[in-house]
Amino acid sequence: MKVKWVSRSLIGVSLICLTFIYIDDHNRMSRQEIPFGVQSNEANETFQFIRENSPKDAVVMCTKPRAFCLFTDRNGVVFPDAEFKDQMLNLIKRENVFYVVTGRFDYYGYIKEEINANPEMFQQMLSNDLYTIYQVK
């Protein structure tokens, strides 16, 4: 009988301690707004621009095409891997890309180099702290 009481007491005390640890950790968490991401003003501005200034069947080339598809209701295609960077312009033509979106979090440095090397092909349409939208001419 005494063993059951002791083991139950230990379990109860352990649960109380874990509860206080959880509450303490929860209270110490930062309540600051996440400075970037799909919920940011810059992302929403970018998504809204694409929705309002492109045809429904437009294709957007970007680093995160699934997110852009979800928030713009447009089709998307991802940039080619760096080893295939020489195929980027062909991919744009083949997929009939309407907008190319570069961002602060692009994985490949070659994207802006390609855009700058081919100014006759791209026109900057919008730029904010997170994204720059180029229309393919």
Question: How many helix segments?
Answer: 5
C-alpha-based Rg, rounded: 25 Å
| Strand neighbour order, sheet with most strands | 2-1-3-5-4
- Kindly report how far apart the N and C termini lie: 84 Å
Spans with pLDDT under 50 lasting ≥5 residues?
Answer: none
- Kindly state the mean pLDDT as a whole number? 86
The largest β sheet comes out as: 5 strands, mixed
- Indicate the overall shape: elongated
> From the helix content, strand content and strand pairing, which structural class follows?
alpha/beta
Residue fraction in strands: 15-25%
Portion in helices: 40-55%
Number of strands: 5
Query: What is the chain-wise order of helices and strands?
Result: HHEHEHEHEE
Task: Tag the structure with descriptive keywords.
137 residues, alpha/beta, five-stranded mixed sheet, 5 helices, 5 strands
Give a topology summary.
Layout: H1 2-28, H2 41-52, E1 59-62, H3 65-72, E2 75-78, H4 88-94, E3 97-103, H5 110-117, E4 122-127, E5 131-136
In summary, what is this structure?
Helices cover 45% and strands 20% of the residues. The protein is of the alpha/beta class.
Overview of this protein structure:
- It is a single chain.
- The chain has 137 residues and is α/β, with parallel strands linked by helices.
- Helix content is 45%, strand content 20%.
- It has five helices and five strands; from the N terminus they run ααβαβαβαββ.
- It has helices at 2-28, 41-52, 65-72, 88-94, 110-117, and strands spanning 59-62, 75-78, 97-103, 122-127, 131-136.
- A five-stranded mixed β-sheet has the order 2-1-3-5-4, with helices on both faces.
- Helix 3 links the parallel strand 1 (59-62) and strand 2.
- It is elongated.
- It starts with a helix and ends with a strand.
- The mean pLDDT is 86.
